[in-house]
Design goal:
Layout lengths: L1 E4 L10 H9 L5 E3 L6 H14 L7 E2 L25 H21 L3 E4 L2 E2 L6 H9 L6 H15 L2 H22 L2 E5 L6 E2 L2 H10 L5 E6 H9 L5 H8 L3 E6 L1 E3 L2 E4 L8 H5 L7 E4 L6 H12 L1
Parallel strand pairs: 1-2, 1-12, 3-4, 4-6, 6-8, 8-9, 9-12
Antiparallel strand pairs: 5-7, 10-11
Helix pairs in contact: 1-2, 3-6, 4-5
Length: about 300
């Protein structure tokens, strides 16, 4: 299954029904609901699925719809986190995630993609980005900055990991009762959760639960460019837990471009992705023809 995310036009098209029609015209098998949708857009989208008898959306992200007090343009960083050390904030993040799960039940969506949060450490990504952009990736200074950043993360990550464990304990129990799959997603930034090792720790902890792995190809490639990991290892190590994949290309460090328009070697990526897995295009708004060309490339 190849789907297109509402990320492509959620901010540009305020009318949910028109948003649905625009996506449907792109020729994908299905639609994925991103975290950028307002409650009004959601309510307008619902009849579109019912009226034409289209299959339900393949997946939905937490938190969808957007949280009260947030804007569609301000969703890169969540205002509440499943990893928070503030128990009230963490409980609110759980409550809002359960609301997304309830929406999934209503719309017969089988998969919830979770953003787990982050480690509360000073963001040193800009140091790695600067060195990358200056062409210094292969030099010792670059490796030193990567090590410094990850070491600072390690000093604080255990408490946040415990908070995530507590959050997932409750969400997995809910998902089991609701007969939903919850998917933890690899994130682009080193301070976000889970990192490569934490994915394994979480599956060891929740073995046998409804939890699965959702792989974002662009996020993995971004981490590789910044010296944090090898992008291919995520799928090699965690393939048994894989339930879906997000597809977008990188132009240098800029994400969310149509596959085939950036730096990612897609022939190599496709050898690692099972043909029957859910695949979702998550693209910034761009020319329709580029989206269609990317879809056709991924269909061959």
């Amino acid at each position: 299954m190849l789907a297109i995310s509402t990320f492509w036009n959620a901010q540009r098209q305020p009318d949910g029904a028109a948003l649905f029609d625009e996506l449907n015209d792109l020729g994908f098998d299905n639609i994925a609901l991103s975290r950028h949708l307002t409650i009004e857009q959601i309510e307008q989208i619902k009849p579109a699925f019912l009226d034409i008898g289209q299959a339900p959306p393949c997946c939905i992200q937490n938190f969808c719809p957007i949280l009260p007090g947030t804007k569609q343009t301000e969703l890169e960083e969540d205002i509440i986190l499943l990893s928070s050390l503030d128990n009230d904030e963490r409980k609110e993040a759980i409550r809002r995630t359960i609301e997304t799960m309830q929406l999934a039940i209503e719309m017969e969506i089988p998969i919830i993609i979770l953003r787990l949060g982050k480690v509360d450490t000073f963001d040193r990504s800009y140091l790695m980005k600067d060195l990358y952009e200056y062409g210094e990736r292969e030099f010792e200074a670059f490796s030193k900055k990567v090590t410094e950043a990850t070491e600072w993360r390690k000093r604080k990550e255990s408490k946040h990991r415990d908070a995530v464990m507590r959050s997932l304990d409750e969400l997995n129990e809910r998902a089991l009762k609701m007969e939903l799959s919850i998917a933890i997603e690899n994130r682009p930034h080193y301070y976000q959760m889970p990192n490569f090792d934490e994915v394994g720790l979480l599956f060891d902890e929740f073995y046998g639960s409804p939890m699965r792995y959702w792989h974002d190809v662009g996020h993995a490639a971004y981490q590789e460019k910044l010296g944090l990991c090898w992008s291919h290892e995520w799928l090699e190590i965690y393939s048994e837990h894989l339930i879906g994949v997000t597809l977008h290309d990188l132009q240098d460090l800029a994400p969310h471009h149509p596959p085939g328009t950036g730096d990612i070697e897609w022939d190599t990526v496709f050898t690692q992705i099972p043909s029957d897995i859910v695949k979702v295009f998550e693209l910034q708004h761009c020319d329709t023809e580029l989206v269609i060309q990317g879809r056709e490339m991924c269909e061959t």
